């Protein structure tokens, strides 16, 4: 079954053609990163308008690259929550129009479920149940993937997402936007114990996380040094920050995995591209004797293929949308 899938929840417009939830025939992405870098972060109105400008062209390009006819498309899947409301609306409205024009079912997909499904593309052998750490610019949560569509949140951040902290740290270090890769690159040449940074714990909720204190600590270190006219070692601070984020994520994930009794653990989302987190996960999984699944870098960020993959399993489970389908800025998993 061929699925046309649409992703527009933030600053990437993506359209893909997938087959049977595991095979990617085409995945076309238009990034707005350079545009938003001028402002130090995503400007929602600009993001929405940019999606409008390119989405139709990307859909035509995806079909052309896949080498199929539009009449062969069996369903249209779309990420309808969570995300920037204006941006999500563009994708939802385009998907509704495409499904109507093609005369095929419309399948709504939760954005985080899409990120988790990116692992199915990279690892055809992976099947539920397993535990997944979903880490991105707007979300950080531990998800018990009990089936392809039945999932339970075991723990989540109480405030900032890990990805947001990377962006704010990059900004205060003068690295620009988006911040994940620049911070990662800078940290490789630094000492991860040079700066003492907090690792927050939520009493009574061992799998919940908090990153606002870590973000504030980094900002205070930089601002205090500026006021005193002192130099900071940017590489050391980036390395110490990356270690603090990883220390907040990996041990919690492994402890939750032990509680669930699974022998498979995965990571998903843009922050899963971070080299320190990937390395710490590999060491922890090896020590615990469990299988680790982390998508290649191209599947960590937002893309249409992951929506098509999850859309296939949502379709099999009977999920359908119609002309009343709306977009949502927030939605429980």
Describe the structure in your own words.
With 333 residues, the chain is α/β, with parallel strands linked by helices. 44% of the residues lie in helices and 19% in strands. The protein folds into two domains: 2-115 and 300-316, 2-Layer Sandwich (Nucleotidyltransferase, domain 5); 128-298, Nucleotidyltransferase, domain 5 (2-Layer Sandwich). Strand 9 (264-268), helix 9 and strand 10 form a beta-alpha-beta unit. The longest helix is centred in the last third of the chain and has 27 residues, at 234-260. The radius of gyration is 20 Å and the shape is globular. The chain starts with a strand and ends in a 17-residue tail after the last helix.
Shape category: globular
First CA to last CA: what distance? 26 Å
Largest sheet: 5 strands, mixed
Q: How are the strands of the biggest sheet laid out side by side? A: 3-2-1-4-5
Kindly provide the name of the CATH class of the largest domain. Alpha Beta
Helix content: 40-55%
**Estimated structural class:** alpha/beta
- Beta-sheet strand percentage? 15-25%
| CA-based gyration radius | 20 Å
Q: Could you provide a short overview of the structure?
A:
By secondary structure, the protein is of the alpha/beta class.
């Amino acid at each position: 079954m061929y699925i046309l899938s649409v992703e527009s929840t933030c600053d990437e417009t993506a359209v893909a053609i997938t087959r049977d939830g595991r095979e990617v025939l085409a995945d076309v992405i238009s990034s707005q990163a350079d545009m938003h870098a001028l402002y130090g972060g995503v400007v929602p109105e600009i993001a929405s308008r940019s999606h409008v400008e390119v989405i139709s062209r990307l859909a035509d390009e995806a079909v052309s690259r896949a080498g199929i006819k539009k009449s062969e498309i069996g369903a249209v899947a779309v990420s309808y929550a969570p995300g920037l409301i204006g941006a999500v609306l563009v994708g939802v409205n385009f998907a509704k129009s495409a499904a109507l024009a093609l005369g095929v079912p419309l399948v709504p997909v939760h954005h985080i479920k899409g990120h988790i499904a990116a692992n199915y593309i990279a690892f055809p052998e992976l099947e539920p149940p397993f535990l997944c750490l979903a880490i991105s610019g707007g979300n950080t949560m531990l998800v018990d993937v009990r089936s392809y569509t039945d999932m339970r949140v075991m723990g989540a951040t109480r405030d900032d997402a890990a990805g947001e902290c990377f962006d704010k740290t990059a900004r205060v270090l003068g690295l620009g936007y988006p911040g994940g890769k620049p911070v990662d690159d800078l940290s490789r040449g630094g000492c991860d114990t040079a700066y003492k940074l907090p690792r927050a714990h939520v009493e009574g909720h061992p799998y919940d996380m908090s990153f606002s204190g870590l973000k504030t600590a980094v900002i205070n270190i930089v601002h205090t040094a500026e006021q005193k006219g002192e130099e900071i070692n940017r590489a050391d601070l980036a390395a110490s920050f990356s270690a603090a984020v990883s220390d907040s994520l990996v041990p919690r994930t492994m402890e939750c995995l032990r509680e669930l009794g699974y022998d498979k653990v995965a990571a998903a989302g843009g922050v899963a591209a971070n080299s320190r987190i990937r390395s710490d996960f590999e060491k922890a999984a090896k020590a615990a004797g469990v299988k680790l699944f982390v998508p290649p870098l191209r599947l960590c960020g937002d893309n249409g293929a992951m929506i098509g993959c999850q859309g296939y399993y949502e379709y099999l489970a009977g999920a359908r949308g119609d002309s009343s389908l709306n977009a949502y800025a927030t939605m429980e998993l």
